[in-house]
Amino acid sequence: MDISPVAHRVIMCHLEGCEELAAWYHTFQILFFLVSAYFFSCPVPEKYFPGSCDIVGHAHQIFHTFLAVCTLSQLEAIFLDYKTRQEILFKRHGSLSIILSCGSFFGLVACSAITALLLQRKIKEELTMKAS
Q1: Mean pLDDT confidence for 109-113
Q2: What is the predicted pLDDT for the residue at 61?
Q3: What's the pLDDT score for residue 28?
Q4: What is the spatial distance between Cα 58 and Cα 49, in angstroms, rounded to a whole number?
Q5: pLDDT surpassing 90 at residue 4
Q6: 76, 62, 92: which is closest to 25 by C-alpha?
Q7: What distance in Å separates the CA atoms of residue 127 and residue 105, rounded to the nearest whole number?
Q8: Where are the alpha helices (DSSP H) in 42-85?
Q9: Known binding-site positions
Q10: Is the pLDDT score of 93 beyond 80?
Q11: What is the pTM of this model?
């Protein structure tokens, strides 16, 4: 599981009584994710209020809301971890690894943009062939 190191850290931190703010954000991240998973798999509002949640308030919207808050909590936790545990990070991985990790994000954005452009071109070609 991807979250297992974070879950282990959160559990151990709370058992030991640590006061890291990042651990609380990680805890909220896990809770928001579990709540969003519940609303993803169970159409709760629609079940109890049929017809009144067709535009606003259906489970899929609630799922996305909790998932967005989960992501915000995760990003805040990562930022706090980076600020407070920077020495550990550099000692374990070195500065080159950090630079490559950050640089790979821009590579991912470039690959996504190229894929979108190629797909757009292919769709335009297929639509013009269909139209003629």
Answers
A1: 97
A2: 95
A3: 96
A4: 10
A5: no
A6: 76
A7: 33
A8: 44-48, 59-84
A9: 60, 64
A10: yes
A11: 0.71
Q: For residue 58, is it left (φ>0), alpha (ψ between -120 and 50) or beta? A: beta
Q: Is the pLDDT of residue 1 over 80?
A: no
What does 78-120 look like in DSSP terms, one character per residue? HHHHHHHSHHHHHHHHHHHHHHHHHHHHHHHHHHHHHHHHHHH
Which amino acid makes up residue 42?
C
Q: Are 87 and 25 in contact (CB under 8 A)?
A: no
Residue 127, phi-psi category: left (phi > 0), alpha (psi -120 to 50), beta (remainder): alpha
CA separation for the pair 53, 61 (Å, rounded): 10
Give residues with Cβ within 8 angstroms of 69, minimum separation 6.
32
Binding-site residues for Zn(2+), please? 60, 64
Contact between 25 and 77 (Cβ < 8 Å): yes
Residues 103 and 78: their CA atoms lie apart, in Å, by 17
Structure-block tokens of residue 43: 């159409």
Going from N- to C-terminal start, the domains of the chain cover: 1-92, 93-131
The structure tokens 């805040």 sit at 76
